[in-house]
Hints:
The chain has helices at 18-29, 91-113, 132-138, 142-145, 166-172, 219-277, 283-307, 310-331, 351-372, 402-406, 412-422, and strands at 34-43, 46-50, 63-74, 80-89, 117-122, 127-130, 181-187, 193-205, 208-217, 335-340, 376-385, 388-395, 426-431, 437-444. By secondary structure, it is an alpha+beta fold. The chain has 4 domains: 9-99, Beta-Lactamase (2-Layer Sandwich), CATH 3.30.450; 114-217, Beta-Lactamase, CATH 3.30.450; 223-306; 314-444, Histidine kinase-like ATPase, C-terminal domain (Heat Shock Protein 90). Helix 6 (219-277) runs antiparallel to helix 7 (283-307) and helix 9 packs antiparallel against helix 11 (412-422). The termini are far apart. The structure holds adenosine-5'-triphosphate and magnesium ion.
Amino acid sequence: MHEVLGKQVLDLFASSQGLEIDCNLQRAMKGESFSLPAMLARTSGQARVIRNRDARMFDESDLVWAMLAYSPWRDDEGAIAGVIVVVSDRTERVQAKRKLNDTWSRSQAVINHMLDGMAMVSSEGHIESFNLAAERSFGYRAKEVIGQNVLMLFLCPFTYSNDCTLEQCLVSGKKGISGVGREVLGLRKDQSTFPLELVVSKIALRGGHLFTVLLRDISTRKAAQEELGVITERLRQLAAHQESVREAERSRIARELHDELGGQLTALRFDVNRLSQLPGIGLERVGQLRDSLDAAIRSTRSIISDLRPPMLDHLGLWGAIEWYAEGLARRCALNCQILICPNLEDLKMSNNVGISLFRVVQEALSNIVKHAEAQSIILRAKRLDDAVIEVKIIDDGKGLNREDLDKTGHWGVLGMHERVRSLGGELALEGAPGQGTTLRIRLRVS
Length: 446
Ligand SMILES: Nc1ncnc2c1ncn2[C@@H]1O[C@H](COP(=O)(O)OP(=O)(O)OP(=O)(O)O)[C@@H](O)[C@H]1O
Ligand SMILES: [Mg+2]
């Protein structure tokens, strides 16, 4: 203090400021009280008031943002005898404000450079900010939407099936909505629509809250998904077509084998029988010939049966399934319980459905034999309603893991899925290690 006492007040200011300070002192001397911001710079141990534009000539740490409050100083008679100048240091406050501004500008830059659209929405649903990507997606300039209700950006009613509307999400702040991505239809300025994924997050503020709404334009993703869906569907149709061609080809070969080869073998067997009755024929040799012929007939029948189970034509689907499952269980020493509801018998179904279901059951049973190490099988078929059937095949084997079904190079389960799907039905395979496996098919047959 001793350094300044007795000095001219103007000595505390840079010479360039002298005039201005003088004016301020004069104003106060005339009885006026007022405050003005000022910038001080510390030079050689002294702080001097400088002009703002000269601040860059000083080190940041030497600058002081101050508020100079001028007021007249009156003597006992009330006459103005001088001026009181109160200098308050506001450096910390100014620096904090600058930092805040910096942070704000930085976050604005990040938000504006985001690829996804983003809007800040007040708790009443009014748009408070709208970034560049959102401008591009919706065709609005930010100033056209700020202050408007956010619902103007969507086609109402919303296309998502959730029980919570956007208005409820944004305005009532219904619990559990934050961060959930949901699809809605966005409405552009030109009234065209586009698919949009919405992610809403609620930010608590002092005395209220704000929503950040992420507006992701998913037109490209949707188009790609649709294209993929079409390609997948076509591949499915192709696979189903190939399967039916293969079945038809198998039936044709089975028929040829049965009619041609089967017929000839039976005729030969008859001839051999007659041969054995002729005098002078070695019976032992004829016996060997007959055995060979019988083996050839059995093999042919087995090949025909694999190609197109004759039981399918003779007994119908349910009879053929029963015959096949019983035969397999007998051969593999499995305990097999078959429960086929009698009202299935009068259900009409096409040849294609019949053979496909038979093949699925065949694959399911063959998987049990190959992989399950089961003791027993339950095969249950029933009618759920007029034309819907349900087939369940339950084994008590070692069960399966998810990974079993994801293995590459194994086609049985995939084939079962495809067959059932191509008929418009659904197939589920459930199991847990050590708890057996259940296969369930549901299918509308007419
Ligand atoms: N009933 C079952 N019990 C236990 N594991 C099973 C059962 N059914 C299927 N699996 C598992 O699922 C896997 C996939 O079966 P999938 O029928 O697709 O192939 P695969 O039988 O191994 O070969 P293939 O292509 O000849 O059918 C099997 O390798 C097996 O590990
Ligand atoms: Mg298999």
